[in-house]
C-alpha cells in the first residue's frame, strides 16, 4: 500500500485509470490488477476529470450499487466527467439512469415493457431474420470491417425498430450515439459545442416523431410508451433529449461493442472458439462470458450524499466514485485466476457486472443477450469463423469500451 501511495504522488498518476490511452492501447489490465491487489478503493487526487475514488473490485462495487440513496446517480451524473454548474454554456440533459428515486423508478417503469420476456419472444423472429440477412451479405475470404458491416448494422437496425424510426435514416442513430457517448469531448470546448448542436438535431428529429404519434393509440415503440406515460409525457426539451440519448447509447454501445468483442475474443482464444464450434449448446453461457470479458461500458459513476466508509476508506459527502465494471469483471476472488481470459463455459459468467447491479441495472439486458445469442447461433448455422486480419482501432476513452474498426475475413470451419 505504501508503494502505491508513493507512485500516486507522481505528476502522472499511474493509477489514474481514467487516462484514455489505457483503453486506446489496450493496456488497462496491469494498473487495474495492481489496484485490485493493493487498493480496491483508491483515491486519485488529480486527473483530467478532477479527483475521484477508484472502486475496482467486485464486492465494493456491488455495495455502492446496492445503496442508491447513499451513493447518488443524480448528484453528479453517471460518468467520471463533471458537469460544470458555473459554465454558462453547460446544458444539463437529465436521463432516468442519472436520476434518483422516485423519478428514476417511474421513468424506468415507462420503458421497461419494451424489454419483457414476452417482447423478447415477439421480436426474436425479426432479429433472427435481420441477422441472417446481414451475415448472408458478407464477403467470404475478403477483408472487411466487422464493426461497421455487422456490429453497427445489427444494433442500429434494432434501435430503429425499438423507436419505430425511419429505416432510411437509421444510421443517424449511430452518429448521435457516437457523439453522445464520447466522454473525451468534455475536455474540448469546440467539440462540446458541436456535440450540443448534434444533440439538439437529435431532439428535433425525435420531437417530430413524437408530434406525429401524440394523439394515436399506444404502440409497442419507445416513443409511444413515453407519450402514454404519466412519468414522461411532460418532459421538457432537455430531459426529452437526455432520455433519448440514454436509450440510444444504451441500446447501441453495449450490444455493438460486445458483437465486436465477440469477433476479436474468439479469434484471440482459438481453443474457446473450438469449444463453441463443437458444442453450440454453450452459446447462452458464452453470451454472458463475452459480455463479461468485453465489458462494453468500463465504468459508472456515483456521488456520495453523506460522509461514509467504504472498505476502510473515508468517503466524504460530494466525493465522486468511479465504479470500474471492467475491473470488477476481472476480480480474481470471484472469477478465478483466469479472469482475464475468455472461457465460454465459465461456470459463473452470469455474475458479471457489465449491466450494473441494483436498481440501475441495464433495462435492456435481455435484449442485448438475445441479439448476441442469435448472432452466434446464425454464425454456427453457417459454420462461419471470423478471423481477425489486422489490429483493431479501439475507442480512446474510459467510458465506452469498444472498437472503431476491426478488420476481419470469414471462413468456414
UniProtKB/TrEMBL annotation:
Annotated coiled-coil segments of the chain: none
Keyword Oxidoreductase carried by entry: yes
One GO MF term: oxidoreductase activity, acting on paired donors, with incorporation or reduction of molecular oxygen
Top EC class, one word: oxidoreductase
Its EC number(s): 1.14.13.151
Pfam family, one: p450
Metal-binding keyword on record: yes
InterPro entries: Cyt_P450, Cyt_P450_B, Cyt_P450_CS, Cyt_P450_sf
Protein name listed in UniProt: Linalool 8-monooxygenase
Amino acid at each position: 500500500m505504501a508503494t502505491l501511495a508513493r507512485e500516486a504522488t507522481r505528476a502522472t498518476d499511474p493509477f489514474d485509470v481514467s487516462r484514455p490511452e489505457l483503453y486506446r492501447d489496450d493496456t488497462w489490465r496491469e494498473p487495474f490488477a495492481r489496484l485490485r491487489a493493493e487498493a480496491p478503493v483508491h483515491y486519485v487526487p488529480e486527473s483530467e476529470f478532477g479527483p475521484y475514488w477508484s472502486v475496482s473490485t467486485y464486492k465494493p462495487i456491488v455495495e455502492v450499487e446496492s445503496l442508491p440513496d447513499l451513493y447518488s446517480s443524480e448528484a453528479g451524473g453517471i460518468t467520471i466527467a463533471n458537469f460544470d454548474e458555473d459554465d454558462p454554456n453547460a446544458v444539463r440533459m437529465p436521463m432516468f439512469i442519472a436520476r434518483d428515486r422516485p423519478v428514476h423508478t417511474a421513468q424506468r417503469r415507462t420503458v421497461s415493457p419494451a424489454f419483457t420476456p414476452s417482447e423478447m419472444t415477439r421480436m426474436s423472429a425479426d432479429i433472427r431474420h435481420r441477422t441472417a440477412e446481414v451475415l448472408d451479405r458478407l464477403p467470404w475470404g475478403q477483408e472487411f470491417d466487422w464493426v461497421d458491416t455487422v456490429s453497427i448494422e445489427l444494433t442500429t437496425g434494432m434501435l430503429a425498430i425499438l423507436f419505430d424510426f425511419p429505416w432510411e435514416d437509421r444510421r443517424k442513430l449511430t452518429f448521435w450515439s457516437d457523439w453522445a457517448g464520447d466522454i473525451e469531448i468534455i475536455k474540448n470546448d469546440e467539440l462540446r459545442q458541436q456535440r450540443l448542436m448534434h444533440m439538439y438535431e437529435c431532439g428535433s428529429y425525435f420531437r417530430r416523431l413524437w408530434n406525429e404519434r401524440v394523439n394515436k393509440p399506444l404502440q409497442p415503440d419507445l416513443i409511444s410508451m413515453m407519450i402514454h406515460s404519466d412519468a414522461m409525457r411532460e418532459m421538457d426539451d432537455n430531459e426529452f433529449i437526455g432520455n433519448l440519448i440514454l436509450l440510444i447509447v444504451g441500446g447501441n454501445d453495449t450490444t455493438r461493442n460486445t458483437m465486436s468483442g465477440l469477433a476479436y475474443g474468439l479469434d484471440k482464444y482459438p481453443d474457446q472458439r473450438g469449444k463453441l464450434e463443437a458444442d453450440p449448446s454453450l452459446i447462452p453461457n458464452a453470451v454472458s462470458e463475452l459480455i463479461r470479458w468485453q465489458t462494453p461500458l468500463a465504468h459508472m459513476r456515483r456521488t456520495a450524499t453523506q460522509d461514509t466508509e467504504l472498505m476502510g476508506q473515508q468517503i466524504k459527502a460530494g466525493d465522486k466514485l468511479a465504479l470500474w465494471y471492467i475491473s470488477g469483471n476481472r476480480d480474481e476472488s470471484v472469477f478465478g485466476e483466469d479472469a482475464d481470459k475468455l472461457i465460454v463455459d465459465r461456470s459463473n459468467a452470469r455474475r458479471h457486472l457489465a449491466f450494473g447491479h441494483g436498481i440501475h441495472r441495464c433495462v435492456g439486458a435481455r435484449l442485448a443477450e438475445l441479439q448476441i445469442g442469435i448472432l452466434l447461433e446464425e454464425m454456427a448455422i453457417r459454420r462461419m469463423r471470423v478471423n481477425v486480419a489486422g489490429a483493431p482501432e479501439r475507442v480512446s476513452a474510459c467510458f465506452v469500451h469498444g472498437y472503431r474498426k476491426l478488420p476481419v475475413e470469414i471462413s468456414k470451419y
